[in-house]
UniProtKB/TrEMBL annotation:
Its main location: membrane. Gene3D superfamilies: MFS general substrate transporter like domains. One of its GO terms (molecular function) is transmembrane transporter activity. It is a multi-pass membrane protein. GO terms for cellular component: plasma membrane. It is found in: Cell membrane. Pfam families: MFS_1. The chain crosses the membrane at residues 42-64, 76-94, 106-125, 137-156, 162-179, 208-229, 244-265, 272-292, 298-321, 333-355, 367-385. Keywords: Cell membrane, Membrane, Transmembrane, Transmembrane helix, Transport. It comes from Pseudomonas mucidolens. This is Predicted arabinose efflux permease, MFS family.
Length: 397
């Protein structure tokens, strides 16, 4: 009985901790316009603040992503929590652009470290439920962070501080509880060598990674679009001025993704990947239709479909790859997987943001959407051809 309770506590604790990190990552987004008004910085500076977070997160994944394979999970989780606490304190006291950049840089590194080690720990504790929790929690976290921050800004005092105080209290509690976790990895030599920037994909997982990568890239590129350009796009084509609509779209995207993940969690990974690619292509096509019709209801319907594709595609990619790693390879593989995912999350969006200066928001959205549709349909065709080849090989044809 005690082992069952320990297992349940570990799974719930790791999931909530991962959710907290992802909620913290999206919490500053609704506050940026307040920072801009108070600190008087440009959109270019705002892009820099976004960029340093992404670069710092990727730096963490590339360096300390596999550190817990050598030192154990608990010490690395604790360090990530302490770094995130420090980032929350920087946000609370931020009175200049330099403080915001420092806060986002530190937060990015802490989130990158936490994403890799918590993902690996979830796989250690439950190989069946671990991939599901790893898939659903980031989406729930981003929804909670964006909507929670928006609601506090709209209805509560201390608009640029209260969300960070709330997150800081959660992080302190998690820092105290982390030592109650059972350690799932025995320390092994090579910790310093593991800090050398590298992407470690075990040989037995490489083919599955390459097959699932186009879908994973497409779904994360959609996520990046929604967290950056989508609110501006909706305001431009519908004339809406509500700050809650942008947060609502993000919530619909992530929550529909989480619901889809839960719905298809017991299906085979290749079928889930195909479903994700199909829904994503349809959802992006509907987004383009809503853009040219200026229809807010169609935007929400399109977001619902695209979010379902997001969830299915992400879960299918994750379940195709990470179960193939051995215990001491999991953190490194999770790190590599998230590096590729976050590159797809950041780089296309940054490119699109620059292109809007030359071509405008609507034309850039058309091009962005067309590329994603081609990527999703190409991946779908590749998966169907692979299944057909497997059937022919099995039947001896």
């Amino acid at each position: 009985m005690s082992s069952v309770i320990s297992h349940r506590f570990g799974l719930v604790f790791l999931a909530i901790t991962l959710l907290t990190f992802l909620a913290a990552s999206s919490a500053p987004t609704p506050l940026y316009h307040l920072y801009q008004e108070g600190l008087h910085f440009s959109s270019g500076t705002l892009t820099l603040i976004f960029g340093v977070y992404a670069l710092s997160l990727l730096a963490a994944l590339l360096t300390v992503g596999s550190l817990s394979d050598h030192l154990g999970r608990k010490p690395v989780i604790f360090v990530a929590l302490v770094l995130e606490m420090a980032a929350m304190l920087l946000f609370i006291n931020a009175d200049s652009v330099a403080w915001l950049i420092a806060a986002r840089t530190l937060q990015g590194f802490a989130t990158g470290m936490a994403t890799a080690v918590l993902g690996a720990a979830l796989l250690d504790i439950d190989r069946q439920q671990g991939p599901l929790v790893n898939s659903i929690t980031p989406l729930l976290g981003m929804a909670c962070g964006a909507m929670g921050s928006s609601l506090l800004v709209e209805f509560a005092p201390l608009p640029t501080q209260l969300i960070y105080w709330t997150l800081l209290a959660l992080l302190v509690l998690q820092g105290l509880l982390v030592w109650r976790l059972p350690e799932s990895v025995s320390p092994v030599p090579g910790a310093l060598a593991s800090l050398r920037p590298t992407l470690h994909v075990p040989p037995q997982a490489r083919r599955a990674l390459w097959l699932s990568l186009p879908v994973d890239v497409a779904v994360w590129a959609v996520g990046g679009f929604y967290l950056s350009l989508a609110p501006s796009l909706v305001r431009a084509v519908t004339g809406s001025t509500s700050n809650l609509i942008g947060g609502g779209l993000v919530a619909v995207l992530t929550l529909s993704g989480a619901l889809m993940i839960f719905s298809v969690r017991k299906h085979a990974a290749d079928k889930v990947l195909r479903l994700g690619a199909s829904l994503l292509a349809v959802g992006v096509a509907l987004i383009l239709g809503a853009t040219h019709m200026g229809s807010l209801p169609l935007f929400f319907l399109a977001t619902l479909v695209a979010g379902s594709g997001f969830g299915a595609g992400f879960l299918g990619a994750l379940r195709s790859v990470v179960p193939l790693a051995l215990p001491h390879e999991r953190a490194g593989l999770m790190s590599a997987f998230y590096v590729l995912s976050y590159l797809a999350f950041c780089l296309p969006t940054l490119l699109a943001g620059n292109l809007t200066r030359s071509f405008g928001l609507i034309a850039t959205t058309d091009g962005y959407g067309a590329v994603l549709i081609v990527l999703a349909l190409g991946a779908l065709i590749g998966l169907i051809l692979q299944d057909a080849a497997r059937i022919r090989a099995t039947s001896g044809g």
